[in-house]
């Protein structure tokens, strides 16, 4: 297993190109199952989670052509003209929960699908009940057996009104894809409004779907008998953008983030500006630096979009650990998303957790330590802390980072960070 070593204290200076969004690309890849024609996706990042989704689609019989090169150009092309399986096995689903996104498309296109139940994960129990009840409202028969979701729609899916009791990104995506090929009209009420939902909607529309309202909390889809191929470019990754904004701020640097979309980050940027971060949108993306000396403690509460993203909470906590004053950070989306707290504490952060809230008392300087994390965003929060810490931090379990941050060491090193990856010594 790889390790990353970071020596802190260097202000990051330079330009970073923002990669395509992982969480937009994964459902877009699943959407390729909806058509027998080729779906070409540009700007798909080179990440472990993308490789896992390719592995799953390959297993289902999708032909995949990877024309991507490391500068971000070139497409990934998917042709689902001869599907050979409708089973998403445990081994892949357990590796990546987003595998459940093949359920809606398979059911809509072929009338049956078996997808392993994802089970809990490091950040919470994460049930899929909203995906299942939505598909049932559209006429699917669903049975849970041997750890699998066994879904059938022998007479095809039918349009329905689906009222989500909770906002769910994945359930909204699964249902949008299923409804695109269902008979009649589906209304998704209390739908998620994330930019990734709008990106999927735009792609489905260019594939011939009749869909309106994406980006609002009611999405209406009139089913069509078949969809066509299309070419679509994945939106830039707003979570990677927010992470590098905080990397500039925590290291007291000055970064230009090329291709960033500030309109996808209004709430986080409002909070960061309040904390003393200057964020200046320009024609190539945005520039970020500290507005006026030390950062100031600022409170946040995570919420579904357009609120403060849960996927930026851990990074913001690292930032606040070095701010002047205290901040209260409240996590409302996942029940167990504070695993970075004990690791940040090992680096000298002063954080007390009370239920869903963490009180962070900022420190002048964090100190390097060997650390590890159990999920992607927790891992990157430790990278941020390490960039500001005194001494050399050793980050273990780097594979979490590789799931969601394309070439992160290279991007940070180009801007002056002292960061290097090494293979773990097996004897240690
Ligand atoms: C997506 O996960 C993202 N993943 C997550 O990013 C992100 O944290 C999350 O949305 C919230 O923004 C992808 O897009 C691939 P949800 P998803 O369904 O769709 C509960 C990262 O670090 N819920 O919106 O799985 C659920 O338990 C990852 O990149 C139900 O109760 O999230 C959670 O509390 C981590 N029943 C809340 O809703 C359901 O059927 C929101 O989850 C579904 C969800």
Mean pLDDT: 96
Bound molecules: ligand EPZ
pLDDT < 50 stretches:
none
| Sheet with the most strands, sense and barrel status | 4 strands, mixed
Through-space gap between termini: 11 Å
Provide structural commentary.
There is one protein chain. The protein has helices spanning 22-31, 48-60, 90-95, 103-110, 129-137, 169-180, 195-206, 238-250, 266-274, 313-320, 340-346, 376-388, 399-404, 408-414; strands at 2-7, 13-17, 38-42, 63-66, 75-79, 87-88, 112-116, 141-145, 148-152, 161-163, 185-189, 210-212, 218-222, 230-233, 254-258, 277-282, 285-290, 300-301, 326-330, 350-354, 357-361, 370-372, 392-396, 418-423. With 428 residues, the chain is α/β, with parallel strands linked by helices. The protein has a four-stranded mixed sheet, with helices on one face. The protein has a four-stranded mixed sheet with strand order 2-15-17-16. The chain has a four-stranded mixed sheet with strand order 4-5-3-14. Helix 4 (103-110) runs parallel beside helix 6 (169-180). The mean pLDDT is 96. Ligand EPZ binds at residues 23, 26, 97-98, 124, 126-131, 166, 168-171, 310-311, 333-334, 376-377, 404.
Brief description of this entry?
The protein is of the alpha/beta class and about 425 residues long. The chain is built from 14 helices and 24 strands.
Keywords, please?
single chain; 428 residues; alpha/beta; four-stranded mixed beta sheet; 24 strands; 31% helix
């Amino acid at each position: 297993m790889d390790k990353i070593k970071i020596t802190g204290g260097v202000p990051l200076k330079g330009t970073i190109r923002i990669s395509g969004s992982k969480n937009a690309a994964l459902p877009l890849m699943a959407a390729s199952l909806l058509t027998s024609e080729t779906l070409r996706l540009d700007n798909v990042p080179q990440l472990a989670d993308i490789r896992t989704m390719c592995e799953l689609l390959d297993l289902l019989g999708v032909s995949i052509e990877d024309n991507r090169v490391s500068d971000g150009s070139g497409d990934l092309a998917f042709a689902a003209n001869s599907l050979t399986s409708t089973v998403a096995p445990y081994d892949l689903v357990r590796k990546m929960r987003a595998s459940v996104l093949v359920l809606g498309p398979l059911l809509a296109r072929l009338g049956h699908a078996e997808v392993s139940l994802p089970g809990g994960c490091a950040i919470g129990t994460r049930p899929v009940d909203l995906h299942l009840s939505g598909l049932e409202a559209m006429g699917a028969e669903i049975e849970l057996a041997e750890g699998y979701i066994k879904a059938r729609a022998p007479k095809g899916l039918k349009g329905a009104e689906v009222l989500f009791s909770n906002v769910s990104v994945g359930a909204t995506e699964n249902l949008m894809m299923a409804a695109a090929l269902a008979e009649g009209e589906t209304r998704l009420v209390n739908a998620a409004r994330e930019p990734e939902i709008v990106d999927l909607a735009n792609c489905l529309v260019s594939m011939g779907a009749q869909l309106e309202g994406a980006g609002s909390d009611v999405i209406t889809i009139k089913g069509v008998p078949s969809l066509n191929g299309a070419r679509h470019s994945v939106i830039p990754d707003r979570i990677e953008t927010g992470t590098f904004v905080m990397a500039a701020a925590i290291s007291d640097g000055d970064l230009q983030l090329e291709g960033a979309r500030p309109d996808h980050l209004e709430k986080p940027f409002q909070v960061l500006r309040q904390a003393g971060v200057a964020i200046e949108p320009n024609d190539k993306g945005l520039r970020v630096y500290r507005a006026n000396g030390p950062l100031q403690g600022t409170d946040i509460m995570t919420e579904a979009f357009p609120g403060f993203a849960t996927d930026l909470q851990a990074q913001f906590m690292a930032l606040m650990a070095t701010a002047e004053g205290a901040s209260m950070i409240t996590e409302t989306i996942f029940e167990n998303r504070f695993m970075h707290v004990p690791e940040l504490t090992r680096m000298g952060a002063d954080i007390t957790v009370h239920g869903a809230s963490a009180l962070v008392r900022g420190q002048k300087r964090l100190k390097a330590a060997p650390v590890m994390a159990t999920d992607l965003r927790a891992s990157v929060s430790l990278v941020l802390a390490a960039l500001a810490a005194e001494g050399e931090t050793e980050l273990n379990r780097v594979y979490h980072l590789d799931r969601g941050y394309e070439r992160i060491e290279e991007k940070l090193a180009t801007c002056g960070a002292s960061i290097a990856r090494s293979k773990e010594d097996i004897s240690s």
